[in-house]
Amino acid sequence: MQHAPTRSIFRDILPALVWRHRLALFCACLAVFCYGVFRPESPPELFNESDKAMHVLAFLGLGLCGALAAYGRRGAWGVWPALAAAAPLVEWLQHALQPATRDFSLGDIGGNLAGAALAAFAWWLALRWRREHRARHPIGAARAVESDGWPEKDL
Fold first, then answer.
1. Which of 51, 76, 90, 147 could form a disulfide with 70 if both were Cys (CB 3.0 to 4.6 A apart)?
2. How far, in Å, CA of 24 to CA of 69, rounded?
3. What is the C-alpha separation between 96 and 115, in angstroms, rounded?
């Protein structure tokens, strides 16, 4: 008699839920990004050229949320070329949709590309740290593991 394979919450169900949460975070970030970029009026000038800083921060946040959402999925590397392509496209669309209030700026494109580059660098650092951390602390090396997969507790 063969038994049907059992589903493990940690192996089968939890990763799908975590991915859905990461995707929801990315969608929320994308919605805020689109509101900020495509709203009719320019954002307030907090300091000289503060809009460039906002472009850097917007693409930094969007890049990190996109990388987190795509992490572990097929084609996850595509986040970075997509951001690089979106940098000038967003600026062009912004001007095309609201020519009276928004201007096309090469400086804004540079800010977009700088934000994407900073996000890629931060993501690379995070992956490197994770890889080194896992190499130094392999799962189950220090303690015996019970049959259910959880480490035994030290009493």
1. 76
2. 8
3. 22
